[in-house]
């Protein structure tokens, strides 16, 4: 994983617009043995959701203005936070949601966790760090979703998700096409409608 995710996403947002950014520091759970970290995700997510509900009640902060962004295990944390808020937050973006121990896991990121849920999969092979299965309203699989140009290991592939996302907040330049099957994804043969990947649009739908 790469801690630069937090700083990169924070910086591109603050350079672009006037927003409040809240970072959830859950490193004591995240750096534990992987199985323990997986087990800790739902509780971290629930606590984050309760904090956002507190902000909503005390300050009037609207769920319509909230965008939860999580990388790897953090994508599932964001999903659980959204679930705690009964799917009322405007958007969740899961950046290469973690794969090992998450296939079939009821606590993983789901399309019902926010009004709009997007996932960007960059290391979703059978032995990858990310989940290779659709998890959201819209799932992007750049370069097939399992191996990224210029990368020679899973960590590099995995980190590409937040690097792609950070770039799209600034430029909104990466566009995907609708696929009718995972075979079209893996053969790079999708020919459906277009949708921009990533970006900071709170009203995005797909």
Overall description:
By secondary structure, this protein is of the alpha/beta class. The protein has 6 helices and 6 strands, in the order H-H-H-E-H-E-E-E-H-E-H-E. It has helices spanning about 5-15, 25-30, 35-60, 75-85, 155-170, 180-185, and strands at about 65-70, 90-95, 115-120, 140, 175, 195. The strands form 2 sheets. The chain has a 4-stranded parallel β-sheet with strand order 1-2-3-4. The two termini are about 30 Å apart. The mean pLDDT is about 95.
Task: Provide a quick synopsis of the model.
This protein is of the alpha/beta class and 206 residues long.
How would the blueprint of this fold be written?
Layout: H1 4-16, H2 27-30, H3 34-59, E1 67-71, H4 73-84, E2 91-95, E3 116-120, E4 138-140, H5 154-171, E5 175-177, H6 182-186, E6 194-196
Parallel strand pairs: 1-2, 2-3, 3-4
Antiparallel strand pairs: 5-6
Helix pairs in contact: 1-5, 3-4
Top keywords for this entry?
single chain, alpha/beta, two-stranded antiparallel ribbon, 12% strand, globular
The share of residues in helices is 25-40%
Rg for CA atoms: 16 Å
Percent in strands = 5-15%
Largest sheet: 4 strands, parallel
Tell me, briefly, the overall form: globular
Number of DSSP helices? 6
**Extended strand count:** 6
Distance between the termini: 28 Å
Which regions are unreliable across 5 or more consecutive residues at pLDDT < 50?
none
Query: H/E series, N to C?
Result: HHHEHEEEHEHE
Domain Lipase: 14-191
Subcellular location: Secreted
Protein name: Pancreatic triacylglycerol lipase-like
GO molecular function: lipase activity
């Amino acid at each position: 994983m790469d801690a630069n995710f937090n700083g990169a996403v924070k910086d591109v947002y603050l350079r672009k617009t006037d927003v409040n950014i809240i970072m959830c520091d859950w490193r004591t759970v995240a750096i534990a043995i992987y199985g323990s970290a997986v087990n800790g995700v739902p509780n971290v997510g629930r606590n984050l959701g309760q904090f956002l509900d507190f902000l909503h009640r005390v300050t009037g902060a609207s769920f319509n203005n909230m965008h939860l962004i999580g990388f790897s295990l953090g994508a599932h944390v964001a999903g659980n936070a959204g679930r705690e808020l009964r799917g009322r937050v405007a958007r969740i973006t899961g950046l290469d949601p973690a794969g090992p121990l998450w296939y079939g896991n009821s606590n993983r990121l789901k399309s019902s966790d926010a009004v709009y849920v997007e996932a960007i999969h960059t290391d979703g092979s059978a032995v990858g760090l990310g989940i290779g299965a659709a998890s959201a309203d819209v799932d992007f699989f750049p370069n097939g979703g399992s191996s990224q140009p210029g990368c020679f290991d899973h960590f590099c592939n995995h980190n590409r998700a937040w690097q792609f996302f950070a770039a799209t907040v600034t430029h909104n330049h990466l566009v995907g096409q609708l696929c009718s099957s995972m075979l079209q994804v893996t053969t790079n043969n999708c020919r459906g409608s277009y949708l921009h990947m990533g970006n900071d649009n709170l009203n995005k739908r797909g």
